[in-house]
Write a structure and sequence with these properties.
82% helix, binds protoporphyrin IX containing FE, single chain
Amino acid sequence: MSLKPNHRLPLMAMGMFSLLMALFGGVQRLGWELPTLTLVLPANHGSLMVGAFLGTVIGLERAVALGRRWGFLGPLSTGLGGLLLITGVAPSLAQLLIVIGSLMLCLLFVAFLRRQFAWFTVIMLVGALSWLAGNLLWLTGSSIFVVVWWWMGFLLLTIAGERMELGRMLFIPKARQQQMSGAVVLSMLGIAVTLFDIDTGVRILGLGMIAIAVWLGLNDIARRTVRQTGLTRFIAVNLLAGYLWLACCGLLLVLFGADFSGLRYDAVLHTFFLGFIFSMIFGHAPVIFPAVLGRGMLYRPAFYIHVVLLHVFLTVRVVGDLTIELLPRNIGGLINALTLLVFVLNTVLAIRAHHVKQKAEAG
Ligand code: HEM
């Protein structure tokens, strides 16, 4: 038995709260003077984004798909971990809760595999294991710049697996599917090598990212659906733009290798997390939010506002990073944060518009 949509709302709310607080911390880390909400927000920006926001939303979506109550323990755990990370109280407990959340996601994929074996589920399971491994390193005291590649592996494989799952309808030949598996293996190999030689490891990961981006760019159904209209085209535009950012991140990793802080580190991380991951979120949100929350959402062309803002100002930020110009970097980063607020607002308005339309039709 699953959890009723209304009972899923608090879990989603915890994830969204972590997103908002992570944004606040991110803007503070750029150097903008904002009031201090809690002292730890800037330092916890990355872990809040990945573990507490994305971990909770992905865990929730997968738990709904599995349809079993125990599946929701994962997002509950990461959601609570996020609240502790925000307050800065009991940091080790916060980390432990996020470790438990990632373990639950692994178990969830095992349950999917027991139901029906599929390679794309194996890829997503390996992604969840990458998240678990990264979280264990983090719990045992490794720095974020050591852990972050494992977190990237989690998101990279989750998306690669999901796109392959949807690609089943396209009947992609086996040989081409094996190319994707090769790119996934290369990425995970790179991540594993970071344990011994971080510079070589991230360069191999970069090659894997480029290979996955090229594969998705050539084989994804989005290449066809981008010629349609409305929501279908909107989703495809986001996916294709995301693949471009993934290739950019891969290229930066191959060229620069490992950085531990500073402008190049900022460019590498945010081409991936904002350019790639948020393009995927923007594209999937009109489908996933209704499925998770049990509330419809009306597609509106206004969604393109947050899409255009994201790409324009992320470009400004990354160009600032790479040319060592702090002003464009800081303005781009600030508008990136505001863009995510526009996205949240657009989403809430679209849910409301759907509700109003339904009431009007019923009346
Ligand atoms: C939208 C506005 C955002 C702003 C203003 C922002 C800002 C920053 C800044 C200034 C840094 C430090 C970079 C350095 O060391 O020079 C950083 C690091 C980081 N960011 Fe963001 N970020 C944003 C979005 C995101 C998103 C969406 C994610 C993930 C989904 C993310 C994940 C990370 C991670 C993992 C780190 C590394 C943290 C560390 O090493 O402690 N950021 N961010």
